[in-house]
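Minutes, project check-in
Item: structure for the 203-residue chain
Input as provided by the requester:
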Amino acid sequence: GDWWWHDVMPDGRVLLMLGDVTGHGAGAAMVTATVASSYLTLRRMQPELDVSKLLASLHDNLVGLCEGKYLMTFTAIEIDPTTNSARCWAAGSPPIFLKKKNGDIETLNPRGNPLGFGEYSLEPLQVELTGGERFFVFTDGVFELPGTSGTNFGLKRLHRAFATIDAQDPSSARKAIVDVLGKHSDNAPPPDDVSFIVTDYAA
């Protein structure tokens, strides 16, 4: 039930998204496909639509379709190169890790309920950027990945791994993270989808 996407807005803003529908199987997959289709329709009909309003529309569609039977945790990051800033939303999703140019890691925790749950309530968190930052967005399947001993990988270990990976580009960082997770689980098939996004910002 995981879905990710990226878009470039008409004014140059970049939008990154990662969602995770609760549950497994055909039902969750169908809900994921519906959310993806709803997003693409909204973007086609209203390309200038504000991200908060876009997420509110996805929430309303989920409520109407699933009536609370399925929810979707959702992370969105809107990067604006004209203002060197980013707005971040987290609908019940894990934190966002932001590595600064000096190597420090900032943990971002925007507030909000999962899409499809109760009233829409997402508060975007704005972050100022200077260039050289790296964003790491992930679903719970990453840090809940069980190891050979039965112990989950865990958020703290994921934080440490991201901090110590000194990759020059997002593709190399992605491979390094996959290698760390594979070593932990001995490359066993994961019980949940393992999805994440690594992206860099250069001013």
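Outcome recorded: The chain has a mean pLDDT of 93.
No further action items on this chain.
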